[in-house]
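We include this case.
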Amino acid sequence: MKSTRPIDVHKLADEAKFNSFHRSVLIWCSVILVLDGYDLAVAGTALPSIMKAMNVDAATAGFMASSALFGMMFGAIGLGALADRIGRRWAIAICVFLFSVFTAAAGFTSDPVTFSVMRFLAGLGIGGAIPTAAAQMTEYSPKKVRGLMVTLMCCGYAVGSILAALLGKQFIETYGWQSVFIAAGAPVVLIPFILKYMPESLPFLIKQHDDAQLREVVRKIRPDMRFEPHEEFLVPAEDKAEGPSVARLFLDGRGFSSVMLWVAFMTCLFMLYALSSWLVKLMGMAGYSLGSALNFLLAYNTGAVVGAVGGGWLADKLNIKWVTTAFFAVAAVSLTFLGYGAQPLFLIVAIVGASTLGTQILLYAYAGQFYPTSIRSTGLGFASGVGRIGAIAAPIVIGLLVSMKLPLAHNFLAIALAAVIGGVAVALINHKSSDTLRPTTNQGKFHVSQT
């Protein structure tokens, strides 16, 4: 009888060449984030029309916009941790159900309270989808292009925001603000396909002793290799550790760095949601029409896509920690320029998009690489969830500043200050405790035979 030969599945995934399987995972995760980005951004796009229809002031509208972000905090923490226990496929399916059904339901409301409740419930799914999809993409990406693939996936978030702006521009004035919310219900039909075609996490399959599915996924990751029945797939010791996954965020020198990641997420999400909720309104205050203000939103999200892809490419070539820190610095400078109306304005707005939403996408890539696979969804979920404190505060703070009728520049300077704090937090992270720098195991020196 042949002896059992252990093979490290993470080493297999790290050393794989990009193929159709990776492309499939990238497409699925990107589509989910397109829908996720649309469902969040649609409220900011429609906010001026909702304020008029429901006869609410800026401060009340800020609280209405924050309701989804409050739900996102619970969704990111709860569903992120749940994904490490029930598997990422089911967690993602639950998220899609929540954000599709309840965003559509918000379109049928006519008062601020009911609208806020629907947005809170939708926020549970919106918040849970991002860390779970990011963890999934990080696990399956070949190591040489991991940063690029995660940032490409997260660009779906910006594409969803662009889609919300385009539909808002075309449909709100014609069909009313309700139309862009009701349209968000359509993606619920994707749930059966997600459960069928989205691969499950490798450590989860090992934990469930699902050898048949595990071998099927591994064959797709490494079609250049042949695996014999006596070979046993395993994960590194840190991915088999037992105990509460939350407590493990603070083990092995990760405690201080975890807190710094939370601060970075908090400040970056403050920037992101201050702009997503109020950019259209702020540009309107500067004298631009609704159509022109929505064009600024398009420039912002287009810049975000370019910044995210460029940042992902740089993160794979250079140190992702310092690339992220540099992006925070660019955000602080460009937001200051925007507040003072520097020209060309559309270019400044695009740079703001590249260095705010682009930075957030880099943070997801960095956090995904920082934590071991077994607690990756939990780590991403907590960073994203605690970060929602900044996201919740942003529409309220900017709403209050708007109500105080301060000079326009003061609103943007408040957002720029968050960028400075976030950059300092990332600079203080102990990169040596990152999972990316873990020693490569000696197990699994493979005998490769062509299939």
